[in-house]
Amino acid sequence: MRKRILAGMALLGSAALVVSGCSSGSDSGSASGDTITVGFAQTGSESGWRSANTESMKAAFSTDNGFDLVFNAADNDPAAQIAAVRSFINQGVDAIVIAPIVEDGWDDVLTEAKDAGIPVVLEDRTVTASEDLYATWVGLDFKLEGEKAGEWAAQTFTEPTKMVVLEGTTGSAPANDRAEGFDAAIAGTPIEKIDSQTGDFTRDGGKSVMEGFLQKYGVDGIDLVYAHNDDMALGAIEAIEAAGATPGEDIKIVSIDAVHDGMQALVDGKINYIVECNPLLGDKAADLVKKVLAGDAVDKRTIVEDQAFDQAAAEEALPDRKY
Ligand code: AHR
């Protein structure tokens, strides 16, 4: 494990040279002693997007790339995720990477990491805590994703339209921002949001919430589903088919992610439009960790651009899709 003091220096941007102060954690065992120990606090394994993100992170934070990765997936439990970060601090890792499940509640543990001289890099989701408490963030513009989905809906539905929403994890940045962006884009259109509930970004959650909507409003009472991710849209497809209706025709669906299964459903006509959310953030996150530990200046925010797909674009893109 690298000298803890280097992390502290990088955080403070200090030019002072201090060479003592080994962390109490064990060395990761590299012959050169240059291995960087990184604790990564992942949200869980709720979706196809998450699996692709975990794979990308593990590939980037590999031994070959000079890392010793301590991985934790918190099963979408914010308290468990904070406990994992605290454990990384106690282990004396060189840097911590977090994909925060929810936006709020991070001030205390981020302050503890800062006091311990361990830089924190956020990936994927954001937090409401002060920017001083973390080194940098790499992720997606969730609000813009919601806006793009809403713009498609606003252009597609020019007659009175009943819409239900499958929300992501309550309190998460993508659920908050995708709702905000979409609502702004459909303001003043004939689209009426008749119901909105969380499906927790999971296929099962999307299916059971959609079953409830279908029981309450009937197939004829719903024209459009806005799902905050593909997995919930895929669950909704199952519920719509079980109710004897045709997803993509009787009930249109717009979702976010563009993972392989979602794109296949778009090609098959079961989903009507998908806005991408790129999960391949590993290389950028690893690069940021190295730069922060080296004391290099980094941007506070790195936003990875997303595309959007209709059926024809999905057909063209699917064969080369990496996730
Ligand atoms: O934070 C990104 C979101 O988290 C993805 O859209 C969703 O699929 C995942 O679980």
Evaluate the radius of gyration. 21 Å
Count of helix runs: 11
By CATH, the architecture of the largest domain is named 3-Layer(aba) Sandwich
Query: Per DSSP, what share of the residues sits in E-state strands of 2 or more residues?
Result: 15-25%
Distance between the termini: 33 Å
- Report strand order across the widest sheet: 2-1-3-4-5-11
List the secondary-structure elements in sequence, H or E: HEHEHEHEEHEHEHEHEHEHEEH
User: What is the mean predicted local confidence, pLDDT?
Assistant: 92
Instruction: Assign an overall shape.
Output: elongated
The CATH class name of the largest domain reads Alpha Beta
Q: How many E strands?
A: 12
| Percentage of residues in helical conformation | 40-55%
Ions, cofactors and other ligands present here are: alpha-L-arabinofuranose
Largest sheet: 6 strands, parallel
List the helices and strands and how they pair.
Layout: H1 4-12, E1 36-42, H2 48-60, E2 67-73, H3 78-91, E3 95-98, H4 107-115, E4 120-124, E5 136-140, H5 142-156, E6 161-167, H6 173-186, E7 191-198, H7 203-217, E8 224-227, H8 230-242, E9 252-257, H9 260-267, E10 273-276, H10 282-294, E11 301-304, E12 308-309, H11 311-317
Parallel strand pairs: 1-2, 1-3, 3-4, 4-5, 5-11, 6-7, 6-8, 8-9, 9-10
Antiparallel strand pairs: 10-12
Helix pairs in contact: 2-10, 5-6, 7-8, 9-11
Bound molecules: alpha-L-arabinofuranose.
Residues 46-47, 49-50, 124-125, 174, 201, 229, 231, 256-257, 277 line the site of alpha-L-arabinofuranose.
